[in-house]
Amino acid sequence: MKVAYWPGCVSRGFTPELHGATAKVAPLLDIELVELDRANCCGCGVIAEHNQELADTLNARTFALAQQVAGAELMMNICSTCQGAQSECQERLDASSEYREHINETLSGEGLRYERGLTNKNFLWVLVEEIGLDELRARVKRPLSNLKVGPFYGCYIVRPRERLQIEEEQPRDRYLELVIEALGGTVIDYAGARKCCGFPIVTMNKQASLRQAGTHLGDALDADADCLVTPCPLCHLNLDLQQPLAEGVVGRRLGLPVLHLPQLVGLALGLAPEELGMGRHVVRPKSVIDWSTAVVASAA
Amino acid sequence: MADFTLRVRRYDPESGEAPYWEERTVSLEEHRSVLEGILQIKARSDGSLGIRCSCRAAICGSCGVRINGEPGLACKTHIGAAQRHSQAIGKGGVIEVEPLGNMPVIKDLIVDMDAVHWKKIQRVTPYLIGRQPVPEREYIVPRESMLDITQTMACIQCGACVSDCLSMEADPGFIGPAALAKAYRFVGDPRDDRRHERLLDLSEDPQGIFDCTHCFKCVQACPKEVNPMGQIMRLRRIASSDEQIVDANNGVRHEAALSTLIRDYGLLHEAELLPRSYGGNSWFGKFHPAAARELLSSLPAIVKAVLRRKVSPRQALLGHKLPPEDLKAVKAIYEHVEGRRSPHRSERYELNLFIVGEDEDGNESAPAGAADKEQSA
């Protein structure tokens, strides 16, 4: 399938391994990525907080660019925060034709226009809803047997439920568990899976921010996790990049690796940890690398 | 009639025992409420079970509990739906009922609202201070502004949002969603005389409006669609943009820095964002003592990131930018939207779905390209 691919900013900035891993994994799933390299930052909810109309216009621009991609079935993002911030703007744009006209007027300077009803899905949703768990299972080359993975969603992709169309028959807030299982891994049940990583207040209340990250990492460790997996690069920043500082705040050694979702998928599809950029994490994913070395060795 | 199993969290401080779970089976029709299940246990098998309730119609806000880990009103949750939810999340159809979080438990499902919730409500001066001079007859106000605050007036003080506030979990001093929604009820009321003072107070308190971590827990928890987080974001917007208040948490600087960086780069320049949030919104921000202190304290993370080639020094210094044509388009959007605005809030075009509702234009012709397959509701 062909998708208009929005990588977001952080996946090309402070978590380059995420963008890289997605590029490696997509062909293995027959996803053709047409990168929206002209699109702008979603504003992470912060611009909407400052000026709602500005955020709506900026995201309408991205949506309009996505709608221009010929033959694309949908727009795909790889960031929970993009998903949440963009869904919020889209909710307003789709709700009122008068408002949409007003925003489109601003975009008309560039010859762009957003038409109601874009489908914008995070890679996680694409995996389950477009590719399907059975197909995913069939493509697994190296099942994640004995790898204990804790899911970490990121707030913006699980709340609010109505806006994100999370329903009984579409349990998007359970997808990470389903994907981990489909890849052959063991799901770790711990308190923090759907909690906040703390990143949004890292400049506003650093102690509280890092306490959140540290607490969830600690809870996952106590539940015997080998690693966490997240579809959100901003969560990754607080959970991985800031982990050495979070250790200081919660007063315990952590050292829990945090994988990006495409990295975990890539691993099961047979890619090597280095190919997936795992050498670039602040917390070296030693448990994961050891696991994959052991699996490769036993297969040889 | 069907049988339902409730797994209730029990605790009696006088017993000296730790809290424990207890399972009981009740028989009810599936459209009955979880509260009725609890009351059946109380009536038929264990009269000592503690629950606070009154109206049984989602009006009084007494029976806030956590059901299958999520806060809500026991009287507003169908027991059949709760059972299905339990099945869906892998708890085998057993309905878990616990007291609300973030508040001390008095007994079983009863929490100490006075110790947390009501104290925080008191904190925000929860009453109208009439604008002077008081008119001879009634205050005349625009219809929209009254409609707007009915959203926060719908709060029934059940504490569901307080229960799961993730900022409060990490920082119990945070004023919190219920109280801040209440604060908006008066900030948004044109009859109130203390708008600026209220906002100043909530911005200068480091555990005020800028201590919210934006997790949407309260939005999800609220049984009355008060949208507490949405109200907090509006308090921030009015405090910073309209009242020109600079807060104690770098919140306004952070907002301004992010907004400016996206105007100038089109994409987020993470390395610049941090120092600017502390030191001020310019390239020189990083040389401000507050920014330097912050950068120094983050050094262990920064050094590791560079060593692991997570961030190249070039990227850290220069960031990434959109192509010139697109950057021009982004700047034009900023000029168009921000340029039109004067500091007066009336010029802000804000679509409030609570007031206007949604169009009934779901039947528009499907657009080309990345079109929706399942029209969003």
Mind sketching the topology for me?
The complex is a heterodimer of chains A (300) and B (377).
Chain A: E1 2-6, H1 16-28, E2 32-35, H2 46-50, H3 52-67, E3 74-77, H4 80-95, H5 97-107, E4 120-122, H6 123-131, H7 133-139, E5 148-151, H8 175-182, E6 186-187, H9 206-222, E7 227-230, H10 233-241, H11 243-250, E8 258-260, H12 261-268, H13 286-299
Parallel strand pairs in A: 1-2, 1-3, 3-4, 5-6, 5-7, 7-8
Chain B: E1 2-10, E2 20-28, H1 34-44, E3 64-67, E4 70-73, H2 79-88, E5 95-98, E6 105-107, E7 110-111, H3 114-123, H4 143-153, H5 160-164, H6 166-170, H7 177-187, H8 195-204, H9 217-221, H10 228-242, H11 251-265, H12 270-279, H13 289-297, H14 299-307, H15 313-318, H16 324-339, H17 353-356
Parallel strand pairs in B: 1-5
Antiparallel strand pairs in B: 1-2, 3-4, 3-5, 6-7
Helix pairs in contact in B: 3-7, 4-7, 7-10, 8-10, 11-12, 11-16, 12-13
Instruction: Report the sheet with the most strands of chain B, covering strand number, pairing sense and barrel closure.
Output: 5 strands, mixed
State the CATH class of the largest domain in chain B.
Mainly Alpha
Uncertain residue segments of chain B: 363-377
Largest interface, counted by CB within 8 Å of the partner chain's CB: A-B, 92 and 94 residues
How does the overall form of chain B come out from the CA principal axes?
A: globular
Question: How would you sum up the major sheet of chain A?
Answer: 4 strands, parallel
Euclidean distance between termini CA atoms of chain A:
34 Å
Task: Tell me, rounded to a whole number, the average pLDDT of chain A.
Answer: 96
Oligomeric state, counting identical vs distinct chains: heterodimer
How many extended strands of chain B? 7
Shape of chain A: globular
Would you tell me the structural class of the helices and strands of chain B?
alpha+beta
Number of helices of chain B: 17
Reported CATH architecture of the largest domain in chain B? Orthogonal Bundle
User: Which value, in Å, is the CA radius of gyration of chain A?
Assistant: 19 Å
The helical percent of chain A reads 40-55%
Strand content range of chain B: 5-15%
